[in-house]
């Protein structure tokens, strides 16, 4: 293999490059889904308009597939808009709410963002271990990322101890 300057090489996107880490990772907000949702709706409207204008002509370029594409893109666009929740709870606040919910002093904990339901409501899944060494208890808490409501809380003795 040659290392010529014109050679194309795979590389990680800058936001995933660990060597350039400068601070805590910020989870992207689900409200970003509005942008592709609006793009889908605009393309659907253009496809429908083109189909309406050209449907009576014997055009070889515009067929009933444009109507099908307009319907499909409209459905996808509406789904994207309906699932573009604005999150008010970040992972740090989710850890605070989880600590309150489990009822013991938390040592190690981790948060993971997941989505619930048909409209993909963002939820934090927080796993907590008690502060003792080794931990005597563990808890799993699901926290709604929109209104900070505790969706579910499970606390049990740590079977690993």
Structural features, described:
With 161 residues, the protein is of the alpha+beta class. It folds into two domains: 30-82, no CATH class; 91-157, Nuclear Transport Factor 2, Chain: A (Roll). 32% of the residues lie in helices and 23% in strands. The protein has helices at residues 34-54, 65-82, 91-102; strands at 106-116, 121-130, 137-144, 150-157. Strands 1-2-3-4 form a four-stranded antiparallel sheet, with helices on one face. Strand 2 (121-130) and strand 3 form a beta hairpin. Helix 1 packs antiparallel against helix 2. The termini are far apart.
Secondary-structure element pattern, one letter each: HHHEEEE
Helix content: 25-40%
Task: Tell me the CATH topology of the largest domain.
Answer: Nuclear Transport Factor 2, Chain: A
**Number of DSSP helical runs:** 3
| Bulk shape | elongated
How many strand segments?
4
Number of domains: 2
How much of the residues is beta strand, in percent? 15-25%
* CATH uppermost class of the largest domain: Alpha Beta
The CATH architecture designation of the largest domain is: Roll
Q: If you average the pLDDT, what whole number results?
A: 85
Residue stretches low in confidence (pLDDT < 50, at least 5 long) are: none
Could you give the distance between the termini? 52 Å
Helix/strand/pairing category: alpha+beta
Major β-sheet profile: 4 strands, antiparallel
Q: Strands across the major sheet, in which order?
A: 1-2-3-4
Work out the radius of gyration.
Answer: 24 Å
């Amino acid at each position: 293999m040659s290392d010529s300057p014109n050679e194309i090489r795979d590389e990680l996107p800058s936001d995933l490059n660990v060597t350039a880490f400068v601070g805590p990772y910020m989870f992207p907000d689900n409200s970003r889904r509005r942008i592709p949702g609006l793009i889908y709706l605009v393309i659907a409207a253009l496809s429908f308009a083109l189909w309406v204008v050209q449907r009576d002509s014997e055009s070889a370029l515009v067929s009933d597939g444009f109507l099908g594409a307009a319907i499909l893109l409209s459905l996808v666009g509406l789904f994207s808009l309906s699932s573009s929740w604005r999150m008010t709870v970040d992972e740090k606040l989710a850890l605070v709410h989880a600590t309150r919910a489990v009822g013991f002093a938390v040592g190690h904990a981790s948060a993971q963002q997941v989505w619930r339901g048909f409209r993909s409501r963002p939820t934090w899944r927080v796993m907590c271990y008690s502060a003792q060494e080794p931990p005597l208890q563990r808890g799993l808490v699901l926290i709604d990322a929109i209104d900070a409501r505790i969706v579910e809380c499970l606390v049990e003795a740590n079977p690993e101890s």
